[in-house]
Amino acid sequence: MPSWWPVGGPSMAHLWPIDGPSMVHSFGGMGNNGQVKPSIDAAPDKPDKMKASLLLSTALLGLGSAIPMTFDLSEEMIAKLRTGTSSGEFSIAATGTTANEFLQGGCRSVIFLYARGSTQDGNVGGSPGPQTIDQLKARLGETAVAAQGLAYPASLLDNLRSEGCDPDDADAFSALITKAATDCPSAKLVISGYSQGAALVHAASRRLSAAVRARVAAAVTFGDTRKQQDGGAVPGIDASRTLILCHTGDRVCEGTLIITDAHHDYEDLSPTAVNFIASKV
């Protein structure tokens, strides 16, 4: 039996998960201003547990049908999502949650372009972006790497879109990658992202010209929500230059949007990412 059960017609998705942790995140519908209202609901069939309902206007999101989706989140994770902080604990990184070294400082030998996950702070989030950046600089040299995060809303609901992200955000990431390729013709480009940011790596790559794709030395994703849909590949990037990192049990890598503990704490795979990047640049 699946962990969700959809009820409602094609224009609305209303999902009740029937298993999972004791607390899960819920969206309570649309407010008067058209914004989604969060709420926590008790499941009528199991009053001793808290269940998630997801009531979304897929027409508003530009979607044609109901989509199976469950956000299985602990109470602590809910609080972090509501405050916009990173979900999952992480070690303190020197980089912080924002990196603008390319846009503010220009070209370096390696330009690391990164898209953070949904609801994360800054433009590189709390994990695994900063840890990967710090370790890459330690490996290649502080002044050899320009780290640049993508400034985009990172809205949780954009995961429901057909590409797993807002197409405008994909356009913005593609434009940022193209700018780096154009402004810095001798630089090695690395594109990376976590969760929804991984979806942006996929979507942006589709939008790149062949010439710019050829400039991408490495594409690395963490907790990739588009791994299954794109057949374990990043569109247009050769497999030899692609690394998709997924924890065992991370179900977003299996073509679902079910969020489990395995979707967090990806900084433990930063060394693997850095080793791969260093071998390509």
Count of individual domains = 2
Share of helix among residues?
10-25%
User: Can you count the beta strands?
Assistant: 12
Low-confidence parts, pLDDT < 50 over ≥5 residues? 1-73, 78-92
Assembly state (oligomeric): single chain
CATH topology of the largest domain: Rossmann fold
CATH architecture of the largest domain: 3-Layer(aba) Sandwich
SS content category: alpha/beta
- Count up the helices: 7
* CATH class membership of the largest domain: Alpha Beta
Enumerate the strands of the largest sheet in spatial order, edge to edge or round the barrel: 9-8-10-11-12
Radius of gyration: 19 Å
The residue-averaged pLDDT reads 77
Beta-strand content: 15-25%
Order of helices and strands: EEEEEEEHHEHEHEHHEEH
Estimate the global geometry from the Cα principal axes: globular
The CATH superfamily of the largest domain appears as: Alpha/Beta hydrolase fold, catalytic domain
Cα distance spanning the termini: 46 Å
**Main sheet overview:** 5 strands, parallel
Protein name: Cutinase
Active site: 195 (nucleophile), 250, 263 (proton donor/acceptor)
Family: Belongs to the cutinase family.
EC number: 3.1.1.74
Can you walk through the features of this model?
A hairpin with a 5-residue loop joins strand 3 and strand 4. Helices cover 25% and strands 19% of the residues. Helix 3 (129-140) crosses helix 7 (270-280) and helix 4 (167-183) crosses helix 5 (196-207). It has helices spanning 75-83, 101-105, 129-140, 167-183, 196-207, 210-213, 270-280; strands at 4-7, 12-17, 27-30, 36-38, 41-42, 50-51, 54-57, 110-115, 145-149, 188-194, 216-222, 242-245. It folds into two domains: 4-83, no CATH class; 101-250 and 261-280, Alpha/Beta hydrolase fold, catalytic domain (Rossmann fold, 3-Layer(aba) Sandwich). Mean pLDDT is 77; it is low at 1-73 and 78-92. The radius of gyration is 19 Å and the shape is globular. The chain is built from seven helices and twelve strands. With 281 residues, it is an alpha/beta fold. Its main location: secreted. Catalyzes the hydrolysis of complex carboxylic polyesters found in the cell wall of plants. Degrades cutin, a macromolecule that forms the structure of the plant cuticle.
